[in-house]
């Protein structure tokens, strides 16, 4: 059947549903196409289930530290079925909420199936051919599973299957020591699995400053996670019940025998089966849709939002893409991607939160840079909570007095860093925050103190 709409949204992830709502409220007739679970990666296989698992792992870890706080909880035994059911229920509730929101939306027709372009203004979903002058692509990304030697001889997990796992691996080997790999490494170690992270680069989370990589590694090692970095020769084989992961052809233990393998070696955009070749929409070498500062693709009437445009791989950047497109389309407000300040957190415990420039980027910028730094052992709130791992750091431009960036690897850091982020959006001088009186006892109260202790960056 053919149907004509004012707009078609492909993908019900973080950007598509709120955009559909804004457009329908503006009187447009909108089609939303989703081929899998409503809410996309964050809700079903990303942030929500992983942060639910982080919470279970944190609770188990804290219970095991009873002696540090003056109580004995006895042996902590994790019930993986109950843990997985809790995470699954949180995801399922959120996904059902997105679906019913869309299905009840006036002027919105929901199609379930895989969308494929037939031409710039025409999209097929099953037997239906939909037409619109405006098409918004919000198809997200999935785990990269490149061909690696021996991979076809084993069964492996990705984030999608891992969040549903309801057994405890005896030995989990995680390939990839970055955001996804490290969150799962700590979660499963805290549940009681032996965990080995295999990373081909010389250090973990190699986009971060090297002292950050080292601090996160040492924290995870102190909890018993094993690492093989510089693993340049990764290959797989089966030996009875075991999976063998070959890590190095030249030196060290050549193989790790494990029960489960998780691939966490990056994401690839879901643009390969969208039929984009029928549209002329330009993509980069990794399959991301090339967009301008207002998220327009190279063909008029097509926009790309969220992870598939390569301009951000986070839920908050995907949602901000919706805000940018809605502002330009409906509010005569020329919001742009380039106004966004990079900000994210890695949810190991304690979390690592980062905004703006790293130390390496600040040095490379050629500016005169001031730095304020303090270990979490000198943050009262962290001491009282018995969670003193990590540090906080703020970078300031010595001439303009604006904040360039900040990093907090420490308890509450994912929340506290927003005081600094908001100041950066306000383009206010650092002295505004330095003079603010924060509540005691918080992690945030040390931010003004740090700014009173600035020194030139070595
Ligand atoms: C394990 C993990 C943990 C994460 N944790 C965090 C975190 O803590 N914080 C954070 O900010 N980010 C996190 N992320 C990243 C975050 O989940 C994603 O960046 C975000 O969900 C991307 O949203 P999106 O709207 O671009 O795409 P998605 O949410 O992936 O939505 C895309 C939707 O499009 C659908 N689709 C795809 N192709 C088609 C088609 N042809 N036809 C119809 N429908 C289609 C998909 O089924 C999907 O529902 C995490 C990711 C992972 C994997
Ligand atoms: N807390 C968060 O916000 C959060 C959490 C998880 C994921 N995410 C998002 O998901 C994205 C993807 O995360 P990711 O960790 O999968 O990917 P990534 O691109 O951040 O890291 C991939 C890692 O795998 C390594 N690697 C690549 N190929 C390898 C190979 N063949 N063998 C061994 N190691 C290999 C790389 O050196 C790198 O360290 C992130 O960029 C992030 O935006 C966000």
Automatic annotation (TrEMBL):
Disulfide bonds: 42-47
A Gene Ontology molecular function term of the record: flavin adenine dinucleotide binding
Cofactor(s) of this protein: FAD
PANTHER family with a match to the protein in the record: MERCURIC REDUCTASE (PTHR43014:SF2)
UniProt entry keywords in alphabetical sequence: Disulfide bond, FAD, Flavoprotein, NAD, NADP, Nucleotide-binding, Oxidoreductase, Redox-active center
Source organism of this protein record: Methylocella silvestris (strain DSM 15510 / CIP 108128 / LMG 27833 / NCIMB 13906 / BL2)
Cofactor note: Binds 1 FAD per subunit.
Active-site residues (renumbered): 440 (proton acceptor)
Protein's UniProt name: FAD-dependent pyridine nucleotide-disulphide oxidoreductase
Domain FAD/NAD(P)-binding, residue spans: 6-320
KW Cell membrane (keyword) present: no
Alphabetized PROSITE patterns for the sequence: PYRIDINE_REDOX_1 (PS00076)
Stretches assigned to coiled coil: none
Residues involved in FAD binding: 51
Binding-site list for NAD(+): 176-183, 199, 266
Family affiliation: Belongs to the class-I pyridine nucleotide-disulfide oxidoreductase family.
The Pyridine nucleotide-disulphide oxidoreductase dimerisation domain, residue ranges: 345-449
InterPro entries in the cross-refs: FAD/NAD-bd_sf (IPR036188), FAD/NAD-binding_dom (IPR023753), FAD/NAD-linked_Rdtase_dimer_sf (IPR016156), Pyr_nuc-diS_OxRdtase (IPR001100), Pyr_nucl-diS_OxRdtase_dimer (IPR004099), Pyr_OxRdtase_I_AS (IPR012999)
